[in-house]
Design a protein that fits this description.
Layout lengths: L22 E2 L3 H14 L5 E7 L2 E7 L3 H24 L3 E2 L1 E5 L3 H23 L3 E2 L5 H11 L5 E6 L6 E6 L14
Parallel strand pairs: 1-4, 3-5
Antiparallel strand pairs: 2-3, 6-8, 7-8
Helix pairs in contact: 3-4
């Protein structure tokens, strides 16, 4: 492997042994090509496009087989996003690669925020803790952020591993303890 970077992994030339603290420059077109090869290698009939959006490289997937990526709350879409980030950056810093299809992520974000708000209302009305279904780290963050300014509510993640549950419960009278583990 040379510094000319013919790996086709989407990284800029000569970034192979770069300082992990220095941001790696990435061409969105090379990320698109990698996403296309990855998805077509899985036998999916899809088209990809990529563009820079601030601190993100946005990859959009469309085509006949895109629905396969959206099954089970978008788990395959999340996996493709994870793989692209790992392959392109290999532990180095850079713009986050974000993979979406027909606005699926935005709809999912809105759905999670709505579930969090409705559950918080239920907790305030009943005075009892509610625990949400297992969520990935990004989805848990959405819940915590959606409820962080709600008076009388606190949230905390429960469990081990990648998928954890979020407990939504009445806030303690003295100091909220938001985000801490423990029992109420």
């Amino acid at each position: 492997m040379t510094a000319d970077d013919e790996r086709g992994d989407g990284t800029a030339e000569g970034s192979g042994g770069a300082d992990p603290e220095k941001e790696t420059l990435v061409d969105p077109e090379r990320v698109r090509e990698l996403a296309d090869r990855l998805l077509r290698g899985l036998g999916l009939e899809v088209e990809t496009s990529a563009r820079e959006e601030g601190e993100l490289i946005q990859v959009d997937v469309s085509g006949a087989d895109r629905e396969y990526l959206l099954d089970r709350r978008g788990e395959a879409l999340n996996a493709v996003q994870y793989l692209l980030n790992r392959i392109v950056y290999r532990g180095r810093k850079g713009k986050k690669i974000h993979v979406d299809s027909a606005g699926f992520r935005r709809m999912r974000e809105e759905e999670i925020e709505e579930i969090a708000r409705r559950t918080a209302e239920k907790v305030l009305a009943s005075g009892e803790e509610c625990v949400l279904s297992p969520l990935n780290p990004y989805e848990r963050r959405l819940v915590h952020l959606a409820l962080r300014d709600d008076e009388g509510i606190e949230t905390c993640s429960l469990g081990d591993g990648f998928l954890k549950r979020v407990a939504i419960r009445p806030a303690k009278k003295q100091g909220s303890g938001r985000g801490e583990r423990g029992t109420a």
